[in-house]
Automatic annotation (TrEMBL), chains A, B:
InterPro entries: ACT-like_dom_sf, ACT_dom, Asp/hSer_DH_NAD-bd, HDH, HDH_cat, HDH_CS, NAD(P)-bd_dom_sf. It catalyses: L-homoserine + NADP(+) = L-aspartate 4-semialdehyde + NADPH + H(+); L-homoserine + NAD(+) = L-aspartate 4-semialdehyde + NADH + H(+). Catalyzes the conversion of L-aspartate-beta-semialdehyde (L-Asa) to L-homoserine (L-Hse), the third step in the biosynthesis of threonine and methionine from aspartate. One of its GO terms (biological process) is methionine biosynthetic process. Pathway: Amino-acid biosynthesis; L-methionine biosynthesis via de novo pathway; L-homoserine from L-aspartate: step 3/3; Amino-acid biosynthesis; L-threonine biosynthesis; L-threonine from L-aspartate: step 3/5. NADP(+) binds at residues 4-11. L-homoserine binds at residue 185. Keywords: Amino-acid biosynthesis, Metal-binding, Methionine biosynthesis, NAD, NADP, Oxidoreductase, Sodium, Threonine biosynthesis. This is Homoserine dehydrogenase. GO terms for molecular function: homoserine dehydrogenase activity; metal ion binding; NADP binding. It comes from Nonomuraea longispora. It holds the Pfam family Homoserine_dh. Its cofactor is a metal cation. The lineage of its organism: Bacteria, Bacillati, Actinomycetota, Actinomycetes, Streptosporangiales.
Amino acid sequence: MALLGCGVVGSQVIRLMHEQAGDLAARIGAPLELAGVAVRRLGRKRDVEIAPELFTTDAEALVTRDDIDIVVEVIGGIEPARSLIVAALAGGKSVVTANKALLAEDGASLYEAARRGNGDLYFEASVAGAIPLLRPLRESLAGDHVKRVLGIVNGTTNYILDKMDTTGGSFTDALEEAQTLGYAEADPTADIEGFDAAAKAAILAGLAYHSRVTAAEVHREGITEITATDVASAKDMGYVIKLLAICARSDDGRSFGVRVHPAMIPRSHPLAGVREAYNAVFVEAESAGQLMFYGKGAGGAPTASAVLGDLVAVARNRLAGTRGPDESTYADLAVHPMGETVTRCHVALDVADKPGVLARVAELFAKHDVSIQTVRQEGHGDDAQLVIVTHRATDAALSATMEGLRELDIVRAVASLMRVEGDD
Amino acid sequence: MALLGCGVVGSQVIRLMHEQAGDLAARIGAPLELAGVAVRRLGRKRDVEIAPELFTTDAEALVTRDDIDIVVEVIGGIEPARSLIVAALAGGKSVVTANKALLAEDGASLYEAARRGNGDLYFEASVAGAIPLLRPLRESLAGDHVKRVLGIVNGTTNYILDKMDTTGGSFTDALEEAQTLGYAEADPTADIEGFDAAAKAAILAGLAYHSRVTAAEVHREGITEITATDVASAKDMGYVIKLLAICARSDDGRSFGVRVHPAMIPRSHPLAGVREAYNAVFVEAESAGQLMFYGKGAGGAPTASAVLGDLVAVARNRLAGTRGPDESTYADLAVHPMGETVTRCHVALDVADKPGVLARVAELFAKHDVSIQTVRQEGHGDDAQLVIVTHRATDAALSATMEGLRELDIVRAVASLMRVEGDD
């Protein structure tokens, strides 16, 4: 096999291949041999010992070498990863990758190349790191219907939100701490703006609904606007704010929504207890009921564990002259727009403290067909606030209602606005 | 395919096969056809509609019919299930079973028959019902080393212990409620004495350590002796009592222990939040770190979901002319006796209230090389109690210490004794 990339994950893959050579050979039925490692620059110091002659900067040549039958890609990003993977698959090799961005942008090309080359494409490490999640979705639940997936799939944002919840501090402080501890990168955009989670949501939705989904189809909101007040207000109500990746089938089963946004979930929900940089994915299936998968979503060794699990599987498949499950897109369901997504809202309004305010606000909700579950009036005078939680309504109706509220003269400001999930 | 048994699980399998025929065919690549259902008595009312001509009482004839290539066994128990499965496998068919008792007693014969017949043996539903657990252990973690498995794998006992914890009531009351609600059977022995959990522990340990384990090798203690006082005392200390199935590798990696017994776990442990009849399994692997799998451990539809997932897998394998992963026992590690298991203990002693008591008790612990982590003296006079939590020690040393304590004249009684897990 050949390895593309020798960073945090790649060097752990090599270390584990060395340390567990005997076990891996026994589990596969033949030894795994590392035949080459493609890197950008030679001569760099690595975290792991590798015979220098294995290194090459010519990844293109490596992935088409005749003596290589499995390629592990841990470079990340779109190019050159895509071209290399496609070239490897076209040459009849099997590929193990952790590349969520590529899979969510152009998984179709990779699957197509795998089919033509009659090789395997495995990618357990691309979503939720070490947590066995894609194999259960693709295989264990192959006889069931997934209704909904609610996932905490980005460790950085979960760390930040957990800190804000525990300390009461601001987003900026929590982000800085995450950066100091290495949980967030110097440029944290991909994490805090939800791009990373959106790629994972696209992969999960595709597997759950046997349809093709790209990251561009995922409604995405990040966590940068969340204030200490939002967090405190959620806490007061027995909720906690999490960045969720949500895939949900429509009631008629003909389409589904895919979205990433912060949401309030009840503290009693299994996902509420997911602390620090841990990941967890909650799956609701028609027959299986509620399932949850919990573990480390990132890091060298955990990701390498998932890569090695796939490596054992594709190596076994090659020995048996077979392939793992192919892309399953037979259902070909449409992704519906965010406006059609059914959700609930928590909204805090700074209002004028005079009679008739509640009536006018309630009237506006009714006009947009959004029914109110609870309303609480807090404070007096300039501090008067209405805290409203709605029943389920389409996101379009909820947005129109918020638009209308902002225009009402008696509403001084929408102090906080957050979707509510996980308590229906 | 043929179905053996048409009870709670079997009728759900048939219902789902009907309802999802199109999806299953698309996922497999060919339609699934139900060719026969073996039952004990014909003419009985079933929960699902089936053409009457499909029923037969001649299971032996059914499993060897030429037109059948997959057999699903949901009869349970050792015989006739074993003979039927072995006959089916010997005839080259693939088998999906939920039969934990049989797998834990004689899995070796079944695997052997599968190998000879070149068919598949899948059994995801046998442990933790709908929770995808065996596939992750067998496949996703194939590149990792499992250190420890801590599982709540019996819903009945978890329901009872959860009730005792919530209401403060007795074991008997909680058991009665579980029976009324259908969570416990009229004869609850298999559940409350830990037999069911022990079979599952044997299956989990075998997969985790790539070795052969039978239920007879599992150290087993049930929950019938647990009192409301034990539960309250655990609660006071921030712990909750759960019946755990524990598989743990020895420090030198050369053997492992498998046991089922009630244990105190910290309320902050992810397993502590597993309520009612839910199941969850916590896995610690060297590279992946801590993982948890949570969901419904029993019930017709959840179990049927797991059976159907396996059914799709074995049907795909047959179409591709291949087999799934074989039994993996290459490591061939020994199961060490309970005495060598390293654990911790919480013990409450009713003691004489006089000077020097603590010194004599501490001396006894020291004599057996068991070091004390915390000790708390409570009450006075006839109510005087010492509450001790030990550091890690072998179970043999802990047992010898308890034996010694019972013989000390200053100890009036060992009021409560419980192993402590999950906080190291």
